[in-house]
Amino acid sequence: MAVTLTDAAANRVQSFLANRGKGIGLRVGIKTTGCSGLAYVLEFVDELNDDDETFAAKGVTLIVDAKSLVYIDGTELDYTKEGLNEGFKFNNPNQADECGCGESFTV
């Protein structure tokens, strides 16, 4: 499988990369934290690591390290605006539950 993104997310990432002026793509990963144990991490990438997998989608390169891919394989990254709130949303088919505040999840 892979990690993908919607048109809205692709447009937002391309805009961020253009404003930043450099970068080969967006790293999508996880870190251990929060009530439920795992949280998503997004960061711009200038150089690939040895254990990185890359996924090209809609003009954007998504980079995922091997450890994170186990938890987020099949995830679709979306960008949403709801009222005054806007941000990236993870549609992860592996996610079993999330904490009450929505900041962390479990598989």
From TrEMBL:
<feature type="domain" description="Core">
    <location>
        <begin position="1"/>
        <end position="103"/>
    </location>
</feature>
<dbReference type="GO" id="GO:0005829">
    <property type="term" value="C:cytosol"/>
</dbReference>
<keyword id="KW-0408">Iron</keyword>
<dbReference type="InterPro" id="IPR011302">
    <property type="entry name" value="IscA_proteobact"/>
</dbReference>
<dbReference type="InterPro" id="IPR035903">
    <property type="entry name" value="HesB-like_dom_sf"/>
</dbReference>
<dbReference type="GO" id="GO:0046872">
    <property type="term" value="F:metal ion binding"/>
</dbReference>
<keyword id="KW-0479">Metal-binding</keyword>
<dbReference type="InterPro" id="IPR017870">
    <property type="entry name" value="FeS_cluster_insertion_CS"/>
</dbReference>
<dbReference type="GO" id="GO:0051537">
    <property type="term" value="F:2 iron, 2 sulfur cluster binding"/>
</dbReference>
<protein>
    <recommendedName>
        <fullName>Iron-binding protein IscA</fullName>
    </recommendedName>
</protein>
<comment type="similarity">
    <text>Belongs to the HesB/IscA family.</text>
</comment>
<dbReference type="Pfam" id="PF01521">
    <property type="entry name" value="Fe-S_biosyn"/>
</dbReference>
<dbReference type="GO" id="GO:0016226">
    <property type="term" value="P:iron-sulfur cluster assembly"/>
</dbReference>
<dbReference type="InterPro" id="IPR016092">
    <property type="entry name" value="ATAP"/>
</dbReference>
<dbReference type="InterPro" id="IPR000361">
    <property type="entry name" value="ATAP_core_dom"/>
</dbReference>
<dbReference type="InterPro" id="IPR050322">
    <property type="entry name" value="Fe-S_cluster_asmbl/transfer"/>
</dbReference>
